[in-house]
Write a structure and sequence with these properties.
With about 350 residues, this protein is α+β, with helices and mostly antiparallel strands. Helix content is about 30%, strand content about 25%. It binds flavin-adenine dinucleotide.
Amino acid sequence: MGADVKNNVSLRPYTSFHVGGKAELLAETDNEANIIELLDTYKEKQVWLLGYGSNTLISDKGLPGLTICIRGGDIKVNETMIIVDAGVWWDNVVKASIEHGLWGAELMSEIPGSVGAALFINITAYGQSIGPLVEWVEIWEPKSRKVVRISKDELTWSYKKSIFQLPEYEGSIILRAALKLSKALKEQLGYQKALDVADELNLDATSLTDRRAIIIESRERAGSIWSPTIKNANTVGSFFRNPTVDENQLDAIIAFDETGKTNNQVKKMNSVHGGQHNRVSAAHVMLAAGFRRGQSWKNVKLNDKNLLKIEALDGANAADIYKVMRHIQDVCMEKLGIKLEPEAQLFGEF
Ligand SMILES: Cc1cc2nc3c(=O)[nH]c(=O)nc-3n(C[C@H](O)[C@H](O)[C@H](O)COP(=O)(O)OP(=O)(O)OC[C@H]3O[C@@H](n4cnc5c(N)ncnc54)[C@H](O)[C@@H]3O)c2cc1C
């Protein structure tokens, strides 16, 4: 067997929350042949997929069956096309694109995690998403037990959604993808906080390398940098997806925007980044429901700057985080009639 399979391994170090129980079986690999061999050998077992665990809350009861942790792989750049394996750390793709003078991924600098998860989630930051860059994705398909290529025309992307989250793709494993970038600047940088950083540091928002520096500094300031080797707060970034609200709720929620934009400007930003003018910030919803930055419950806390980041403090377990998640959902529903859905993936029994 190409990949080493271990029994009863704690999954805490495999996630950014640093909570959760044990994997019955755990294999870490960067290669397709190993993944397929594992799937054949453990055909009867339930399979869980992890990249770098930066968007996953794993139950304290652990995960039955086989957990495959896909980390590592190759990046090939050919003209404007980047072909990349699923286990590659996403930011290495951004770095490669910038080294080759390619635009289209730079605003997604330093989003933690693997390429496979980036596609599964459809990662987004500062007005860029991975979805529109994708030419094709190769997956291992459970029905045929074969590797198939899905072309751009068969793929649909929306705010933090990909077809890989649909029930018909359950059990599919993303193996690699081709991303098409551009030799010319595409998107304007429209985020005021990032533009302020550019001004302050005298960086040029129309230069590719400066843009990366602007985004990294903006992310540093927002507490949005994480990697398995950087010790930062234990979070999964934004815990909840931005919800859509009805027209009556819209202006009341937008009133919690503190950037000084008018309601119409915020609606325009919502349309650009969330696909709908009424997709409001989940942080604004939480503020409207009465939650506060820095609020804490025993060993779970809302980040001091961004209350969408739920932090696991020392001694926290997955059940504590789950309880806070449910509490926030219940209060937002009770007070505002708004359903907040986790962006974080919940694995195992809660
Ligand atoms: C500090 C911080 C900041 C963040 N900022 C952002 C941000 O700005 N924008 C943003 O979009 N996200 C952000 N996130 C969330 C996170 O970085 C992304 O969701 C990222 O894509 C997760 O990658 P991962 O490899 O760690 O995923 P994991 O948590 O390991 O997995 C996430 C999901 O992807 C699935 N998956 C993983 N690999 C594969 C595969 N090969 N095939 C099929 N499914 C797979 C898993 O089964 C799971 O359901 C942030 C997280 C943190 C901790």
